[in-house]
């Protein structure tokens, strides 16, 4: 007997529109596979909606805060409703790029050199002093990120000193701290990981952006980016990236699915950028493309994720 599935989508984060598209795609796939499925736009009444609609399994299609950060996962555990994807701790760690980088560093996995700038300290000490401290430790170009946002929201690329101030202030619109990373330039490659106790990395994808920057617009506008499979790097290097992706998945305690993003520099060195525990499932998304390259249709992928959740 199959469970009644509630697709949790929309929500309150800055990635609401992407989540609605992800949720709709998952809904259509599960319905075509014969599941009893209901779309649920997550708001303050989510607990009541889950009870009233007698949801037996939650398929989480939320991105960003209040969906990918462990909060909805904790609520579902309290309600004793099984759900797809990572649990509370792994979700909370992975959404925070700073926490993720600390785990990666502890595990000996490569990640760019970084600084953490607190908004309160920035306001107290001033832009000139903070900029000097950053540039004493790191060299341009840099990437400034809002550490709990996805879809490149709150992310700026800094190639000139004067760009650092607006980049920090953009990140502070979303988080009380900003992550400042060395910009590693090269080929961007993503590794999709699937499974529970014995996860596997799906075929890798090289990301090519027409603008040279894989930002929000490039990610979600058809025609502005290409997914190249297999990536234009040696097979041995691809296998090494897959191994690192699975190690990262396990180090954070992820389950079911995640996507690990890498940069391969001109020397062939691979560096981990970030981890997405609920990757996008839109018509331009990377994770479904990787699954298709492994011979897994979108319908089969969503069914597989339901089955993985039901195993628990």
Q: What's the gyration radius in Å?
A: 19 Å
How would you sum up the global shape? globular
Overall pLDDT: 92
Number of strands: 13
Q: Kindly give the count of domains.
A: 3
- Strand share of the residues? 15-25%
Q: Please tell me the CATH architecture of the largest domain by its name.
A: 2-Layer Sandwich
Q: What is the CATH fold-level name of the largest domain? A: D-amino Acid Aminotransferase, Chain A, domain 1
Please provide a written account of the structure.
With 312 residues, the chain is α+β, with helices and mostly antiparallel strands. The protein folds into 3 domains: 5-85, Rossmann fold (3-Layer(aba) Sandwich); 93-110 and 184-311, D-amino Acid Aminotransferase, Chain A, domain 1 (2-Layer Sandwich); 114-182, ATP-grasp fold, A domain (Dna Ligase, domain 1). It contains 12 helices and 13 strands. The strands form 3 sheets. Strands 8, 9, 10, 11, 12 and 13 form a 6-stranded antiparallel β-sheet that branches. A 4-stranded antiparallel β-sheet has the order 4-7-5-6. Helix 1 packs across helix 12 and helix 6 packs across helix 7 (127-137). It is globular. It starts with a strand and ends with a helix.
């Amino acid at each position: 007997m199959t469970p009644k599935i509630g697709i949790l989508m929309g929500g309150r984060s800055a990635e609401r529109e992407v989540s609605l598209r992800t949720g709709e795609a998952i809904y259509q796939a599960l319905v075509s596979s014969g599941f009893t499925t209901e779309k649920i736009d997550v708001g303050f009444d989510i607990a009541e909606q889950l009870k009233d609609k007698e949801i037996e399994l939650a398929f989480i299609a939320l991105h960003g805060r209040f969906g990918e950060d462990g909060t909805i996962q904790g609520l579902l555990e309290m309600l004793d409703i099984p759900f797809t994807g990572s649990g509370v701790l792994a979700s909370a760690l992975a959404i925070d790029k700073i926490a993720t980088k600390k785990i990666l560093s502890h595990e000996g996995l490569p990640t760019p050199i970084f600084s953490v700038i607190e908004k309160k300290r920035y306001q107290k000490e001033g832009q000139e002093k903070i900029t000097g401290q950053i540039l004493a430790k790191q060299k341009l170009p840099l990437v400034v990120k809002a550490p709990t946002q996805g879809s490149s929201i709150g992310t700026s690329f800094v190639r000139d000193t004067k760009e650092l101030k607006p980049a920090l202030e953009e990140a502070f619109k979303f988080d009380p701290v900003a992550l400042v990373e060395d910009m590693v330039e090269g080929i961007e490659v993503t590794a999709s990981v699937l499974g529970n106790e014995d996860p596997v990395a799906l075929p890798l994808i090289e990301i090519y952006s027409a603008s040279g920057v894989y930002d929000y617009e490039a990610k979600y506008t058809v025609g502005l980016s290409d997914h190249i499979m297999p990536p234009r790097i040696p097979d041995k290097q691809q296998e090494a990236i897959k191994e690192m992706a699975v190690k990262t998945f396990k180090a954070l305690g992820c389950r079911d699915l995640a996507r690990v993003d890498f940069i391969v520099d001109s020397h062939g060195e691979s560096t981990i950028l970030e981890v997405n525990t609920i990757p996008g499932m839109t018509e331009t998304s990377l994770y479904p493309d990787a699954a298709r390259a492994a011979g897994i249709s979108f319908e089969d992928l969503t069914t597989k994720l339901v089955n993985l959740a039901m195993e628990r």
